[in-house]
Design brief:
Layout (H helix, E strand, L loop, with lengths): L1 E5 L7 H8 L7 H21 L12 E6 L4 E6 L6 H7 L7 H9 L21 E9 L8 E5 L4 E6 L6 E8 L9 H11 L7 E10 L2 E10 L16 H11 L10 E7 L5 E7 L13 E5 L2 E4 L14 E5 L16 H24 L1 H21 L1 H7 L5 E2 L5 E2 L1 H8 L10 E6 L6 H9 L4 E3 L5 H11 L3 E5 L5 H4 L12 H13 L7 E8 L8 E4 L2 H10 L6 H5 L2 E8 L3 H12 L2 H11 L1 H12 L5 H14 L1
Length: about 625
């Protein structure tokens, strides 16, 4: 007898909506249909486990096959199958999921059941002009049923013959989606979405090279690993197991192995398993993202995990698997709720635990990896308050000698020498050893220590450390003369008239080379007769703002501002004294003409520029020529 009817829907246009908008990516249908087959198989296992099925389970693999001639893609399982009543209930009533009913009955013993929404099956209509179901329940004397629908609310359902229990889903692929009849396409999708499903997924036969071509063997081609590494107990695993799994996840990163990893295995108050790898992070944040794969009961969901882990942890690689993460019907976007927050906090804590453990137990190894860890830890401290508080214990500062210190250790090292007259502790740093060499050496001659802060986030990180510590400031060694960076006592006053300052300033500026987007001001300081006559510094605040602007769009206006430098004249040096005396007897124009013919001021300015790495191109060439002439 042939039954005819209409699928129970609440919207007349439900199928066009399903076909176009149910999932953002049509290829997702393969995940949904195969996941349903796995669910049916897992249910069969559960029934056998609790004694509700006493027959032979036999082969529980899910088989996928393509018939290009008939333009069909078939997914077959030997799971629990369905009766006509169950087809009517679970297929003909959209969004009534059989998984929910099954979980209610067998929640204490159920193997991992994937589906919860009852819409996954209908994703098949995104790529099919017709879908058929041939199914037979595991129940004794069950009658096989054939269901067919062409993508309208109308269906047909009739009795049929089927030797074995289980379900065949037959997709008649439409003209717009012929790519899903290609073997390579389906194999790639199975590897993407079904690579770690808990039931063997068979797609054709394994092949071997024979007589100049690949031919099928008798062995089934199982495309998935039913017991992936993250589902195994950490106690039984070795380092090589983790490295091998990493290579499988990221076959194009073989030459760039991870530094270490965390194996997550939580049963309460939520379920969470996974492995997170710490890659060697390079100075490019964006390229490192989307390397964590999210699974739900071993079904691939997404590699965009910003909603499940804090932003800074998206720089890690690896796998997270949790059935407790709520997903929308497409499983493509995460919904925020308390479970997600708990899982996120737990992952952050485990990462902090691992780093602190490595720092305490294997400090030498930790220091060796610091340059690769630095960007990750700084990013975490800047973006996550809880992680920041933990990380203060194991975040390191590196000085010019390549020695590493925690903040507390470094404070103890420098506080006697680098505390200024106002009680501020001054952390000196450089971000380019070569360009700031002369300033670094000047600081060392004073007995000061200098940090190397050349990382992508160091400017922001220093600001954070200043906020965390009272009366602490970071100052680059070239931001002022070394005598004034850490003032120990009142400095000698410079007693010049405004006219003298103006005349000398104009004379100095007249000898500067032309430099785009660069502005100079002239400052006068008493630095002692033996200190260099002219030095060039850059204000710490304005330089920091420009560096931050390079990474923060909301500060872009700072990036458009010119670089500002101070030309510091040592009024106690004989040459500068002579220049000041000249300014008393000559007006501005005469003084400029005098220094232009003398060449000594020009030479001293170029020397100062050269020591800061600022003398380039034509100006550098002129300096070299003038040096030979003066010799």
């Amino acid at each position: 007898m042939v039954q005819k009817g209409q699928i129970g829907v609440t919207t007349d246009n439900i199928f066009p909506i399903i076909k176009k908008f149910l999932y953002s990516d049509h290829e997702i249908f393969i995940r949904e249909i195969v996941s349903n087959a796995v669910d049916a198989t897992q249910k069969m296992k559960t029934l056998a486990d609790v004694g509700d099925f006493k027959g032979e389970l036999g082969d529980l693999s899910v088989h996928i096959s393509i018939d290009k001639k008939n333009k069909t893609l078939t997914v077959s399982d030997r799971g629990i199958g369905m009766t006509a009543e169950e087809v009517d209930k679970y297929i003909n009533q959209i969004a009534l999921s059989s998984a929910n009913d099954f979980l209610d009955k067998y929640k204490e013993n159920a193997n991992a059941i994937i589906g919860h929404f009852g819409l996954g099956f209908y994703s098949s209509f995104m790529v099919s002009k017709k879908v058929e179901i041939i199914t037979k329940s595991y129940k004794e004397d069950a009658q096989a049923v054939k269901w067919s629908c062409d993508g309208t609310p109308e269906f047909t359902m009739e009795e049929t013959t089927k030797e074995d229990r289980g379900t065949d889903i037959i997709l008649h692929i439409d003209e717009d989606n012929k790519e899903f009849l290609e073997k390579d396409k389906i194999e790639s999708l199975l590897k993407k979405y079904c690579r770690f499903l808990a039931v063997p997924i068979v797609f054709g036969k394994k092949q071997e090279w024979k007589e100049g071509k690949y031919v099928d063997t008798e062995e089934d081609n199982v495309v998935n690993d039913t017991n992936p590494l993250w589902r195994q107990k950490p106690a039984g695993l070795k380092e090589e197991d983790y490295l091998k799994f990493y290579r499988e996840l990221y076959p194009f990163s073989i030459s760039d192995e991870p530094m270490f990893w965390i194996h997550l295995n939580v049963d309460y108050p939520f379920h969470l398993t996974g492995i997170l790898y710490f890659p060697k992070i390079k100075n490019n944040l964006d390229l490192q993202r989307n390397k964590i794969q999210l699974y739900s009961n071993q079904v691939f969901v997404t590699d965009s995990v910003e909603g499940i882990v804090p932003e800074f942890l998206t720089l890690l690689h690896g796998v997270i698997d949790s059935p407790d993460i709520p997903l929308n019907v497409s499983r493509s976007y995460l919904q925020s709720d308390q479970n997600v927050k708990k899982i996120s906090n737990h992952i952050t804590k485990k990462v902090a635990d691992k780093l602190e453990e490595l720092f305490k137990k294997e400090r030498t190894r930790y220091e060796e990896k610091w340059d690769s860890l630095k960007l990750f830890i700084e990013y975490g401290m800047l973006s996550d308050e809880k992680f920041c508080d933990r990380a203060l214990k194991f975040a390191l500062l590196k000085n010019m000698e390549g020695k590493y210190f925690t903040s507390e250790e470094y404070k103890t090292l420098i506080e006697s020498a680098q505390t200024d007259k106002n009680g501020n502790l001054v952390y000196l740093y450089a971000n380019d050893r070569q360009e700031q060499y002369s300033h670094i050496e000047a600081a060392k001659e004073k007995g000061y220590d200098v940090l190397l802060m050349d990382g992508q986030l160091d400017t922001h990180w220093m600001g954070l450390l200043e906020q965390k510590s009272d009366k602490t400031r970071f100052v680059r060694v070239d931001s002022d003369t070394i005598e004034h960076i850490i003032e120990k006592e009142e400095t000698a006053k410079v007693e010049l008239t405004d006219q003298q300052k103006e005349n000398v300033s104009e004379a100095v500026k007249s000898q500067l080379p032309v430099m785009e987007k660069t502005e100079f001001s002239v400052d006068f300081k008493a630095l002692g007769e033996t200190t260099r006559p002219i030095q060039i510094t850059q204000n710490e605040f304005s330089r920091r703002m420009k560096e931050m602007a390079a990474m923060q769009q909301q500060m872009a206006f700072y990036g458009e501002m010119p670089d500002t430098y101070q030309i510091v004249l040592n009024v106690q040096h004989p040459f500068v004294k002579e220049l000041i005396n000249e300014s008393e007897h000559k007006d501005k124009e005469a003084l400029i003409a005098k220094v232009a013919s003398d060449k000594r001021l020009k030479q001293l300015i170029d020397l100062a520029l050269l020591s800061n790495g600022m003398l380039k191109g034509e100006a550098l060439n002129n300096f070299v020529k003038r040096s030979f002439e003066m010799i």
